[in-house]
Amino acid sequence: MNSKHAATAFAGRNGSRPSAMIARLWSRSAFTLLELLVVMAVIGILVALLLPAVQATRARARRLQCTNHLKQLGIALHNYMDTHGCFPPSVVRQRDGDPQPPPGGSLLQYRSHWTGFHLLLPFIEQKNLYDQYDFTGTWLSSMSDVNDRRVWKLNQTTIPVLLCPSTPRSGTTIGSDGTGPTTHWMGGSPTDYSFSHGADFIRALPGPGEQCPGGLRHYWQQWPQQRRGAFGYNSTCRITDIKDGASQTFLMGEKAGSLLRYGGWRPGDPTAPVEYPWAMAAVIYFAATGTGDDAHWVVGPFAVTRDIKLPDCPDAPPGAGVPYPMNPHPRNLPRIPLERPFYSFQSAHPQGVAFLFADGAVHFLSDSMDQATFEALSTIGGSEVISGVEF
Domain segments of the chain: what residues? Predict the structure, then answer.
């Protein structure tokens, strides 16, 4: 077929030329206003239906990443135990005044040396950071010069495995790095995971408990085993010490920062978020790191499930004290001298908290679970009968 016949065949029976046919195919009327509104409404409904699903998917992804962080910490704890024969203490604490603080240093600043996270650094891919510390000193300065602040900047190092991606916060630098004028001696970076001290609050500050027969028991080895957690001051817990079973005892759990806001207990105290720096060895001390917008209240990285409620004595019978449930409320704390919510396990995930168990498993526990069961899971030798818990 020659080119003339081909063009004639393409034109069709009605003799239309190709350019005219194409023009008719593309010539369509525009949307009416009603059609446009219908399309927009359909798109809006689809977005409304898809947005919660997208948000839920993202929340699940963040929770999975949080779970993976706890699993990595579990591996680090077991590797530490394989190397040193026991889990690290949550706090390495010297005896008061032994040695004496350097001139100008307070007893509070020098009663504690290091946290368990300092000791875990080589096992969480932070060996270079670990090697920069002088472990003959303290977490604040050397034992001879109160103005030696070299570790402050180190303590401000952000360690990704210690942060839950679901926790809302404005930044990961707390307090001063030790250079220039400072209004507070705390420099650090937060963690969202804490060591479990079990079903009792091992206190370090003098108080009514000093009047108990035998004095107040500061150290892990002194604490009644039926309420003792896997960690404490100078703790040396091994798997064989966990009499309740590795699958029935948690070692760590979430204690997410920036969820609570606190107004202090004195006029003029700032209302600021509460954070739990991984390097903070002054365990139960809480104080604001400043007075401006960057101020934080800081507490050590450990949590409990029950308090002995001083002036009750540490050897009070089981059941004494005040329970510390998960996810305390309200989250905006008024100006009151109440520190209890600071020591509860809490998370930014809805309806529960993730916990690392001694067998290396990570389980998400509902914050509506029975308090007695929750406390039983936090102790290493309580011999409690645990039932009705599904992991």
Answer: 51-378
